[in-house]
Structure formats: C-alpha cells, structure tokens
Write a structure and sequence with these properties.
20 helices; Nucleotidyltransferase, domain 5; about 675 residues; globular; 19 strands; five-stranded mixed beta sheet; coiled coil; about 50% helix; GIY-YIG endonuclease; DNA excision; SOS response
Length: about 675
C-alpha cells in the first residue's frame, strides 16, 4: 500500500471515529478541543450547546480559513461546564496552556504599558507592563511605550516626585530643576505626596483641562510679576498638555471609566479596536490586527477574555458590540452561502449604523436581537448578550451591549475605526506589492535584463571556519518565496574559505537544477564582491555550461548593503540609496543573511550538545531530547543525582554512566 492510500485510509478511520463521537455530544455548555493527526490541540472553542456547535464544523460549507482548520481535524474532546461564564474562563485557560495555532492568541509581548504611582514612603511615577496587586495606582493602558513615556515625561516636569530607584546620599540635578522634593536630604510630609498623587490621578483620569486652567492662572501671575522665565516654563507645559491630550470627539455626561470595544473582519483577518474612556472622555485608543479561523464573534470574545485575564486594572464599565454590529461585521465580509469574503468601506458601515439607529424602532430592534440570539442558540454559539453576561459575572464589573443612544455610537465608532484599520492594512499590502514588482522590473533594466522574475541569492556563514553552512533564498517578482529556500552544510571546504564555499554551493545547487529540470533564475546574487562573483561564474560556465547573470552585493564597514557589482569582470553599478531598487537589494541581502545565520546557530547548537551527550553509549537522539527537556541544560544534568533520572525511566546503571561521562569531560 502506497503512502497516499495509507494516509487516506487513516483519514477515513479518523472521520468515522468523529462521527461516532458527534452522536454522543451533550446539549450543555462547555469547551471543545480540536486535534490534528499527531494529537496536537490546534483549536479551542466554547459553546452554549456543545452538540450543535461541534457538529457545525462537520456539516455545511465554510469560508476558506475555517475550511483550513476543519481539514486538519482528526479528533476532538470536550469538557462540560456549568455555565457560559465557566466556559469562558476555561477556554481562556486552555488557550494559554496549549497555544493552539488556529486560535486568536494575545501574545505576552503585546502586553500594554501602564503608568504607575508606586505605593512607597516616597512614591515614584514609572512606566510598567506588569499590573500587580501591590496597592499602587495604575493608569492606562497606553497604546504603546512611546505614548506612556511621553506622558510620564510631561508629568515629571509638572510634579516633583522622586526619580531615583535607590535613594542617593545627596540631592541630584532633578532637585535643582524643581522636579524632585529631595526626600534624600529633607523631610517631606505625607500630605505633600497626597496632594501630588491626587493631582496626577486627576490628570490621568481625564481631568487635564482643570490642570491646564490652573497652569494658565499661574502663568498669568508669573507674567504680571515679571517672572518671564517661569511664565515660559508654564506655557511650555500647557503646550505639551495640548499636544499629548487630543480634543475628544466623544464626551459623556457622566464621569465613568469605560473600555469600549469594536471589531471588523475582512479577508480572514480581524481588527479589534479599544477606546479607553476615562472620566467620561476618550483618552487613548488601541488596535490589534490578527488572522482568525473560527466564528468571528466567538473569536472576538476569546480575545476579550484573554485581554482581561492578565489585567487587574479594570474599568467601571465595558461596552461590547451587540448582535446588530456583529451581524454587520459578518455581512461586511460578504459571507453568504459560499462563505467567501467581500469588502465594504468604512463610510458604508457608518451609514448602515446610522440608518439602523435612526430608522429602526425599539420593537424592531428587539425582534432583530431576539432573532440573532435564536440563530446563535441553533448553532450552539454563545450569543452577544450571553457572552456579555458571562464576562460580567467573571470580572465583577458592568458589561453592557448597547442597542441605541450615545453608548451605541461609541461602539459604532470603535467598529468604524477597526474597519478603517483593516482597509488600511490591505491597501498598504497592495501598495507594497505593486512597488516591489516595479522595483524588480526596474532593477532588471539597470542590469540589462529583459525580465527579472526569479532571483536566487546565496550567503555563507561560519565562525573561524567552524560549522560552515550556506543558505539560498528565492525572490519571485520582488517578493520572498519561502517554500523555495534551501540550506546547505558545507562538505568539502576546510577553514574559512569564502570562495571555495561559494563554488561548492553553486555547484550543488545548479547540478540539482539541471538533474531535476528545475527553473533557472533570471539572476543569481552572491554576498560579496569580485572574488565571489568570479567563483560563481567559473562553476556555472566552465563546469555546468550555464550562462546565468551573477551579481554581488558588497557591504560597508557597518555591514550594510553598499554597492551592487555586475559583469565579468565585475564592475560597480550606480543605484541611488533612496531608490526602491536599492531597497529591494537590501531586503534580499538581509533576508539571505538572516536565513544563513539562523541555520548556522542551529548547527552550532546541535554540535555543542552532540559532543557531550551523543558520545555516551545508550543515548540516542530521542533520549537526548528527553534529557534536555526534563533538566533544561547539560549543566543541570551534570548537577543531578542518580534518583533524578528515575522519572525518565533511566535506570541506576545508565544514569551513573551519563553522570560519569559528563563529569569526566569537564575535568
């Protein structure tokens, strides 16, 4: 039986097993875990009715991305929960534990920065990405570190809290600039800190207008008393406030702190927009753009659950898009019976929202909401209202799905911003592709080629001749074609000989091209100047009978692309450094260098481990990986006792041999 027939038989067996399990699904809420043929969890979801939701994956038609997920499912398991809230929390925990590749994942490096007033005898103002339950005051989150640092910089000028981490023995420059109370040498009353932290709290909670008025009053007084330098300092602070705190389009009559969410989907991508309302005014906004594979609203709720699971700094109220906006997001993608996405611009979305708000009566809206809830129920999904209720129960703050009025307009604004962000993303991609294709064509003209569709670039990597490797990358129409990338371990060259290394790699690559009748490139790019170009041309023409143009990329003292050399003998070609053609060459050189370096590190790491573990009798690749995974490093293995090897089913005799071998090598 050939591999294809065997694979097909295994697939049919897996699907038969799935059909039997589908018949046993309960009609209760819970989470489901989809697995591939290796048993790896590739998707985690939650459902109001497990029976309906899980079955929906294996019936009917799906869009392209969901179909990709379904095609890899070979098994599933499920966990029944007592409520939607429990399903929401469990889903969040399972995603964090298993990191399934088809789930929306809120990466750790995407944690948002906050401003923090520390809970110390002499408090400080600092930027942090960790929100702890340490009785400190946190403000934010901010969309990026720059915004947080700029806000801190402004507040440092205005309020004299200490700046140092460790208290010095004498006053520093900040004291002389009037930006520190010098608690290192002076007694500062608690009331002074309370006043300062109160004003900072007011400022960061949206009360910057009152602070600005107070600064304007002080500036006027200073000017009247002819203290012009002080007046100028106060004026500069007012300008900084105006620059940092934009005029807001939305202002509510109350002073509640809110997080307002909206989202949009298009071409298999989702954008979630968060508007941060503090003291009734919008002070910041943030967006996250990522691919999604499941139901849009379910993946959106999964994002929110992950976002708040590590964020104890909760607002007083959270506003979410309801069934109407969720339906608009689905219709925006043009998903019909085929599930294929289409497009619609942000203006149309705003117009539709306006029409829904003004032309639809309360009774009609309630009917539409009920219809949405029934559709969600039929599919086994948690409807928007049910998801909001579960989130509210979990977080302990009000979670609202507004249907009309100003709050609905806020959610609409967040959704419109999400649509604009997605539209911008795709337009930038199209623009980059167009510019890249034009740059490739222009580069061909400069070199004297009629067409330049396929470029193959090479780079060598070694450290003093150890673990020599080479790599090839392919660019088609100016864009990287990663499935065509190749890696080479150098076989015949001893020591750091770049020219002979280039000869070997060019020979091996194009012998295979001839043997397997693979497409030839329009241009070969080597990393280096005349020597590397000559070595490549010699092998191509004199050994293989191939006449493919070869060019070299020469780097400057800072290891940056500096010059293009072409011809035999090679001559420099003048290209403006700010041209798209020069930028394309930089991308090619950076990409092949990155690929070669990563391969070299991989080989170097393997050789370092091999020299210590693989030389021990009874230790193969499987056991080596198991040992390193369990102990963490070779050093930790050396420090272990014989008993520490028992959980790995390694007996006393082999454990002793491992320890003796590693310790002998060290001595």
């Amino acid at each position: 039986m050939d591999d294809f027939a065997k694979q097909h038989q295994e697939q049919e067996k897996a699907l038969e097993n799935i059909r039997h399990k589908l018949a046993l699904l309960p009609d209760q809420p819970g989470c489901y875990l989809m697995k591939n043929h290796e048993g790896t969890i590739i998707y985690v979801g939650k459902a109001k009715v497990l029976k309906n939701r899980v079955r929906s994956y294996f019936t009917g038609s799906h869009n392209g991305k969901t179909q990709m997920l379904v095609s890899e499912i070979r098994d599933f398991e499920y966990i029944v929960t007592g409520s939607n809230m429990e399903a929401l929390i469990l889903e969040c925990n399972l995603i964090k534990t298993h990191q399934p590749r088809f789930n929306v994942l809120l990466k750790d490096d995407k944690t948002y920065p906050y401003l923090k007033i520390t809970n110390e005898e002499h408090p400080r103002l600092e930027v942090t990405r960790r929100v702890l339950k340490d009785k400190a005051k946190y403000f934010g989150p901010y969309p990026n570190a720059y915004a947080a640092q700029q806000t801190k910089k402004l507040l440092d000028r205005m309020y004299p809290l200490r700046k140092c981490g460790v208290m010095p023995k004498e006053v520093c420059l900040y004291y002389h600039m009037g930006q520190c109370l010098a608690p290192c040498v002076k007694e500062v009353p608690k009331s002074a800190y309370e006043q300062i932290t109160g004003e900072i709290t007011s400022f960061l909670s949206g009360g910057h207008e009152e602070i600005k008025k107070e600064l304007q009053r002080k500036m006027q007084e200073a000017a009247e008393e002819l203290y012009f330098e002080r007046a100028k300092e106060l004026r500069d602070q007012i300008i900084h406030i105006d620059t940092l705190m934009e005029k807001q389009k939305i202002t509510t009559t109350d002073t509640r702190d809110r997080d307002v969410f909206g989202y949009a989907v298009d071409k298999g991508w989702m954008c979630v927009q968060i508007l941060y309302m503090r003291q009734g005014k919008m002070v910041q906004r943030n967006k996250s753009v990522f691919p999604f594979y499941g139901d849009a609203h379910s993946d959106f709720m999964s994002f929110i659950a992950q976002y708040y699971s590590d964020n104890p700094a909760l607002p007083q109220e959270i506003l979410l898009p309801g069934p109407l906006l969720a339906e608009e997001a689905r219709s925006e993608t043009g998903t019909g019976s085929t599930g294929e996405p289409g497009t619609r611009n942000a203006g149309e979305g705003a117009e539709t929202e306006k029409k829904l708000t003004t032309d639809t009566s309360d009774e009609q809206q309630e009917v539409l909401v009920q219809a949405q809830a029934e559709q969600a129920e039929a599919a086994g999904l948690v409807d928007a209202a049910g998801g909001a209720a579960a989130l509210q129960e979990w977080l302990g703050v009000k979670v609202h799905v507004p249907q009309r009025g100003l709050k609905k307009q806020m959610v609409g604004m967040a959704s419109d911003n999400a649509k604009v962000s997605l539209d911008e993303k795709f337009r930038l991609i199209e623009r980059d592709e167009e510019r890249t294709s034009v740059a490739a064509a222009n580069l061909g003209e400069v070199i004297g080629l009629q067409s330049l569709n396929r470029i193959e670039a090479f780079d060598n990597s070694n450290i003093q001749g150890t673990n020599p490797v080479s790599a090839m990358v392919v660019f088609t129409n100016g864009k990287p074609d990663k499935k065509e990338y190749r890696k080479y371990k150098i076989r015949t060259v001893q020591g750091p000989d770049d020219y002979d290394t280039m000869r070997e790699v060019i020979r091996r690559r194009y012998e295979r091209v001839l043997k397997e009748n693979l497409p030839l490139p329009d241009l070969i790019v080597v990393d280096g100047g005349k020597g590397q170009i000559s070595a490549a041309i010699d092998v191509l023409e004199n050994e293989l009978g191939l006449f493919v143009p070869v060019c070299g990329l020469v780097k400057d003292a800072k290891h940056k692309t500096a010059q293009l050399m072409v011809g035999d003998p090679p001559e420099p070609v003048s290209l403006p450094r700010d041209s798209q053609e020069f930028y394309l060459l930089q991308r090619i050189q950076d990409e092949v260098h990155r690929f070669a370096i990563s391969f070299h590190r991989e080989q170097r790491g393997k050789s370092m481990v091999t020299s210590k573990l693989d030389s021990i009798p009874g230790i193969g690749e499987k056991r080596r990986k198991m040992l390193l995974k369990h102990f963490g490093s070779v050093k930790k293995i050396k420090e272990a006792s014989v008993e520490d090897f028992k959980p790995l089913s390694i007996g006393e005799k082999l454990a002793t041999e491992i320890l003796n071998a590693l310790r002998e090598e060290e001595s």
